[in-house]
Amino acid sequence: MQFAVKKDLEFQEKLQKVDEMLKKYKGQKGVLLQVLQEAQRIVGYLPLEVQIRVAEALDVTLSEVYSTITFYSFFNLKPRGKYQIRVCLGTACYVKGADKVLNRIEQELKIKVGETTEDLKFSLEACRCVGACGLAPVVMINDDVYGRLTPDRVPEILKNYE
């Protein structure tokens, strides 16, 4: 219970920071993307509470805020993990077994693509190309690139982030 209270207090502090940031933009037109990016930097994602605050501050509809968030892939509606895992499923990586590497990551972390571990440590995404086809199959964890992967190497790589 103490963890939940601490987490809630941290969230309330982040909402206060969002409110402060929004004061700079109140009533301005054409700043929705910039405001959403700043809000996501503060909170880490864009929950309904943040969306409502943004809509009110910029005098736009909540549906406009939501449709903007869901249109752009860099916005998140759910909390993301500290470590963002991106598995390349482009042609070169897929042919070399990226699907098997992805399956092993899902097994190890007990999450599927698009999900985040309960401890908010890892988020898992599939992408189309990271531009490292010569290293196929490739996985990126934040800015770290791992190439020529096999499913057997997944556990040792994940241990680097514990």
TrEMBL record:
Its cofactor is [2Fe-2S] cluster. [2Fe-2S] cluster binds at C88, C93, C129, C133. The keyword Iron applies. GO terms for molecular function: 2 iron, 2 sulfur cluster binding; metal ion binding; oxidoreductase activity. This is NAD(P)-dependent iron-only hydrogenase diaphorase component iron-sulfur protein. Keywords: 2Fe-2S, Iron, Iron-sulfur, Metal-binding. Binds 1 [2Fe-2S] cluster. Pfam families: 2Fe-2S_thioredx. It comes from Thermosediminibacter oceani (strain ATCC BAA-1034 / DSM 16646 / JW/IW-1228P). The keyword rRNA-binding does not apply. It comes from the Bacteria. Signal peptide: none annotated. Belongs to the complex I 24 kDa subunit family.
